[in-house]
Design brief:
CATH class of the largest domain: Mainly Alpha
Order of helices and strands: HHHHEEHEE
Strand order of the largest sheet: 1-2
Number of helices: 5
Radius of gyration: 18 Å
Distance between the termini: 32 Å
Shape: globular
CATH architecture of the largest domain: Orthogonal Bundle
Low-confidence stretches: none
């Protein structure tokens, strides 16, 4: 399938979407993160066609988000998050918070997060890396960065 190439745009959101912007990719990353690392496990959980899953896995490996590791002599492979992929899971956790707040309905969130450091169930909270204060869309000004176009 021909996709629009966002990788050359001077926009970090567009470049990120070039890597994980089609709907299956974040779900594949989620599944690998929770321990479903083999093709058959991923296909069974997602109900995705073999062709589409193969294409998405190849793309995520090519982008350096997943690593393919042999686990059998046939060869068969499992998929593991690279450091680049693990950081993308942080993005998915922010998406989860939004989905839990606005879309979970009366049933509530389908998954809870227990923080290893304190042992408490919590949610992701965006904070400024400099001062530690909450950081949301209305709390920032956009300034041209060194990679800005033009």
């Amino acid at each position: 399938m021909q996709r629009t190439d966002f990788s050359r745009m001077a926009c970090s959101i567009a470049r990120t979407l070039d890597v994980i912007g089609e709907p299956w990719s974040p779900l594949i990353l989620r599944d690998v993160w929770v321990g479903l690392t083999r093709f058959e496990q991923l296909q069974g959980d997602l109900g995705i066609s073999r062709k589409v899953l193969t294409e998405r896995l190849n793309h995520l490996v090519d982008e350096g988000v997943l690593e393919r590791r042999p686990y059998d002599q046939r060869p068969r492979y499992e998929y593991v998050l690279t450091p680049k992929g693990a950081e993308l899971v942080d993005l998915l956790m922010v998406m989860t918070r939004w989905g839990d707040r606005w879309l979970a309905g009366e049933a509530g969130p389908p998954v809870l997060y227990r923080h290893h450091a304190c042992g408490e169930v919590s949610v992701v909270d965006l904070r400024c890396a400099h001062c530690g204060e909450p950081m949301h869309a209305n709390d920032v000004d956009l300034l041209p960065g060194p990679g800005a176009a033009g």
